[in-house]
Amino acid sequence: MEGITIEMARPEDAFDLRNVMKRAFDKESRKWLTGEQEEKDYNIEPPGYGSVDRMMYSIHHLHTYKVMRDEDIVGGVILTLTGRSFGRIDRIFIDPSQQGKGIGRKVMNFIEDEHNGVRVWELETSRRQIGNLHFYEKSGYNKVFETEEECCYEKRIHKNMSGGGNGLVREYSDQAHSEWYGANLSNISVSNSNIEKGHYHNCNLSGSVYQNINFRKTMFADLTLEDSTISFVSMGGLRFWHTDLGEDRKSISFTECDLHTSIFEQCDLRDVAIKDSQIEGMTINGIKVRELLDNYEGIKSS
């Protein structure tokens, strides 16, 4: 296809990529969703699809590509690769003005050519998006799971895999109730697996990456999280208890976070700075902060 190129996205592309993605998903939202929807359809309106910061995260931590027509960004695709053999298409989006011109097909072919070691690709899409269902099935994807809201697809590319020793690939292996002691599992990759109720004790997990993980009702205790990053996380009901800032007293940063109705009790907040934040209803020892600030401004201006 003349004039179309696909290349790795750079941080300076985040704003334009966000704009293209937002236009694409907003079009889908207007087409498939109605005001009568009781629950959000996260395949049509994925979390953070209007956020530049979320796009920046994808560029830095996932495999994010931009689709160019001449000098203009007209689409993008975001991938999560697990090890060498498993890949997930998190998002693929084409500017509405460029849809129906075969660009999506070119992107799908690019993905498989660029990552030709991957032998299983997967993705999810809304059941409402009939066009998507036909597109993915025509691209060789098979439906493996379906609910009232979404369809899960998988494409297997048959390759000769070397077995045994390092690089062993296991699928659908039942390891329930197994125990590992003194094992070397460095650089292990785990995807689409059930590891609920696992017990990890005295293990070195430094440098590990956890993405798209269900941690509901999980206990984290006696951990060192210094210099770690927690981003785009749903923290409803999460409790921080008996935590500190480590030996070097490195500060914690909360940026663009929704802390509505949160409680800080018996905490050391010396030298804490709160900037450009919504503080309506916030109190310190029962005193409303907004009233304190209003009184302060009144005294300062008098």
UniProtKB/TrEMBL annotation:
<dbReference type="InterPro" id="IPR016181">
    <property type="entry name" value="Acyl_CoA_acyltransferase"/>
</dbReference>
<dbReference type="Pfam" id="PF13508">
    <property type="entry name" value="Acetyltransf_7"/>
</dbReference>
<keyword id="KW-0808">Transferase</keyword>
<dbReference type="InterPro" id="IPR000182">
    <property type="entry name" value="GNAT_dom"/>
</dbReference>
<dbReference type="GO" id="GO:0016746">
    <property type="term" value="F:acyltransferase activity"/>
</dbReference>
<keyword id="KW-0012">Acyltransferase</keyword>
<protein>
    <submittedName>
        <fullName>GNAT family N-acetyltransferase</fullName>
        <ecNumber>2.3.1.-</ecNumber>
    </submittedName>
</protein>
<feature type="domain" description="N-acetyltransferase">
    <location>
        <begin position="4"/>
        <end position="158"/>
    </location>
</feature>
